[in-house]
Amino acid sequence: MRTGFRLQHVELVCLLMVLSVSSPAMSQPDLERDIKECTAAKTPAQCQTALPTCERVIEALAKALTVPMHDEHYRTTLNAAGECAFQVGSYGNAERYFRTMFEHARKLHGAEHKDVAESLNNLAVVLGAQGKYEAAESLHRQALEIRQFRLGAEHKDVGESLSNLAAVLGAQGKYEAAESLHRQALVIGQLRLGPEHPDVATRLNNLADVLLRQGKYEAAETLFRQALAMSQKLLGAEHPEVAQSLANLAVVLEGQGKYEAAEPLYWKALAMRQKLLGAEHPQVASSLNHVASVLLRQGKYEAAEPLFRQALAMMQKLLGAEHPQVARSLSNLALVLSRQGKYEAAETLDRQALAMVQKLLGAEHPEVALRTPNRTEIADSAA
Q1: 3-class state of residue 76 by DSSP
Q2: Residue 293: CB partners within 8 Å, gap ≥ 6?
Q3: Is 180 exposed, middle or buried (0-12, 13-18, 19+ CB in 10 A)?
Q4: Residue 380, pLDDT score
Q5: Which secondary-structure segment (H or E) carries 243?
Q6: Per the structure, how many domains does the chain have?
Q7: Residue 26 pLDDT > 60
Q8: pLDDT more than 70, % of the chain
Q9: Which of 18, 329, 355, 358 has the maximal Cβ count within 10 Å?
Q10: Predicted model pTM
Q11: pLDDT beyond 70 at 66
């Protein structure tokens, strides 16, 4: 997703003149301040403060849509609100903003406009974050087709669509297809954005992730380290993307049995996310799971269990009762309970996790097979 641009001063003055008639409850200075606050919000903290303001602005602009010049301002504000909601983990609200943006763009421009592609892309990203992978894949493919037709095969926005489509394919276990698209997206990013760019670092992370899922640990570790170094150089020592890179590197180290090296990276990513994103955020819950996982692997069961419970509760609250991340949290908690001899409770949770994964991802998803050793251990212990 890309952050919406700021309104030009002359356009904003003209807009406020019309809105002063259609929205008498909001004075011109108030609306001007609110528009600037909404579209200027970039960090999670700024977004948390700006979201109520964005809602007011959207309501005011919607009343003025009979004037053609307002359409672009309305789209920009919806985009800014959607990106802010996504940043703070409010995926339901982000989906609402991007759906409105998509419907507005399609009504205004038709089905094959670049603004339609952008709104499809953003909506698909939010659906993917909610575990709605099939719906997300369909929208990403639509956005990619429009962008390739309108912009050409090597445009930077085409690279963005390729990367996002690859991510949702990887989430569905389609690793070979995902790897191919990630490589294409990386090449386009390096060509159009340069060898060092935050989006290039993200694409290195994404390619490394799908390599990791295929068990290609050494290649994945190399790319994760490149992505981390690039993110730290370009974004600074404390940034959500840096936290993601730290967590990713820790995952590949953990997968190679390097638990002592992985654990401090997990703790650092957790602390950074809590500071930047707040105490309750899907990425914070993910970090709690990571820390608990590496503690579990080191036999620190009593320390791991409360972190798994905290992560599960947060996932259920933020993502809903049925989500792939919730299923993973249930499975993790089941395993640590089993290791402590709490077999009955462990088996109950493990059955719930398996049923949820099969329902959400399908019985043939690689994640079902990956859970087999844990399920076997829990079942044998319970028996």
Answers
A1: helix
A2: 254, 304, 332
A3: middle
A4: 60
A5: helix 240-255
A6: 3
A7: no
A8: 87
A9: 329
A10: 0.84
A11: no
Residue with tokens 């406020």: 16
Listed as own residue / partner, the contacts of 192-199 with beta carbons closer than 8 Å and 24 or more positions apart are 192/154, 192/155, 192/156, 192/159, 193/156, 196/230, 196/233, 196/234, 197/234, 198/230, 198/231, 198/234, 198/235, 198/241, 199/156, 199/159, 199/160
The Cα–Cα gap between 289 and 305 comes to 10
Please write the tens of the pLDDT for every residue from 210-241. Answer: 999 999 999 999 999 999 999 999 999 999 99
Q: Which domain holds residue 309?
A: 264-269+280-383
CA dihedral sign of residues 158, 143, 241, 53:
positive
Q: Write down the pLDDT at residue 74.
A: 84
Same domain, 208 and 306: no
- The CA-to-CA distance between both ends of the chain, in Å, stands at 49
Q: What percent of the chain has pLDDT over 90?
A: 75
What CATH number is associated with residue 200?
1.25.40.10
Q: Return the C-alpha torsion angle 360, 209, 249, 234, nearest 10.
A: -110
Using the structure block, give the residue that is written with the tokens 């020592």: 237
For residues 347 and 353, what is the distance between their CA atoms, to the nearest angstrom? 10
Are residues 190 and 91 located together in one domain of the fold? no
Up-side HSE of residue 100: CA atoms within 13 Å toward CB? 20
3-state helix, strand, coil in the chain (%, to 5): 80, 0, 20
Q: Are residues 383 and 345 in the same domain?
A: yes
- For residue 75, give the CATH number of its domain: 1.25.40
